[in-house]
Design goal:
Number of helices: 11
Strand content: under 5%
Structural class: mainly alpha
Shape: elongated
């Protein structure tokens, strides 16, 4: 029975895939401009937010300092480091865009001044794909007969620039939001414990548990998006984040005697 269900599900998936590859469906899909992905920015921000915030919590706890210091340092870190990361991401993408524009101007100038040499570059790049003879010449001619296509080919094949570029502001916003939202989790127990009339036993233990939840959640979500087993991705993220947190705790424990 289970085998029959598996076959039915597989046949349905094949039918759906075939429908998505009919000429009309392909034309409709290709008519939409490709969209950049901000997954990297969100995963990077979420993991770094959790690691750095929990590092403050672990360092303070390891040093035996008072809980209010966790809130002060943790909140300051959450805002300042999150803002710093997002600005750095923004400036990095802007710098790469400026570099891209400079190289594009150079390619346009080279095509204008030495078209034969640039055409030979296209020919050799296409030859790497196994094209040869008349087919190689025909494809080279098709690429170089359109100036914009020619430049785009050189940008992608010679310099490795992707056709889809992320928006710097959106990338920065994705980094900051993921950093702030997920990075807040290790501080929640201390925030609640600081409320009037509320007392939480061992807020550091709760912070540790919430940090682990954050690492596992981010890792599992990344696994789903990139089609990797979520458990494997979650364990890897937990191991990386947990190692950083343990290091911070050890430093706090070692230096706590000096305070």
């Amino acid at each position: 029975m289970a085998r029959g269900v598996d076959l039915t599900a597989e046949e349905s998936a094949v039918d759906r895939l075939a429908a998505e590859h009919r000429p009309a469906a392909i034309a409709a899909r290709l008519a939409e401009p490709p969209r950049p992905s901000y997954l990297r920015d969100m995963v990077y921000g979420a993991i770094d937010g959790t690691v750095t915030t929990y590092a403050v919590v672990a360092g303070v706890a390891g040093g035996g300092l008072d809980a209010p210091i966790v809130l002060v340092l943790g909140t300051a870190n959450l805002v300042a480091d999150g803002f710093s990361m997002s600005v750095a991401n923004y400036l990095g993408i802007r710098s790469e865009d400026r570099r891209r524009r400079r190289i594009q101007r150079d390619e346009e100038r080279h095509i204008e001044l030495v078209p034969a040499g640039e055409r030979e570059e296209v020919r050799q790049l296409l030859a790497r794909d196994g094209l040869s003879g008349e087919l190689l010449e025909a494809v080279t001619k098709a690429v170089t007969c359109d100036r914009q296509r020619w430049v785009d080919t050189m940008m992608a094949r010679e310099h490795g620039f992707a056709a889809v570029r992320p928006d710097p502001l959106r990338a920065a916003a994705a980094t900051f939001l993921a950093f702030a939202v997920v990075g807040l989790l290790p501080l929640l127990a201390f925030v609640v414990d600081a409320l009037p009339g509320v007392s939480i036993a061992s807020p550091f233990a709760w912070a540790t548990a919430l940090a682990a939840v954050a690492f596992i959640g981010v890792g599992a979500a990344e696994g789903v998006v990139v089609d990797e087993p979520p458990a494997r991705s979650a364990i890897r993220t937990l191991a990386v984040g947990g190692s950083a947190a343990a290091l911070a705790y050890a430093v706090g424990l070692a230096l706590g005697h000096l305070v």
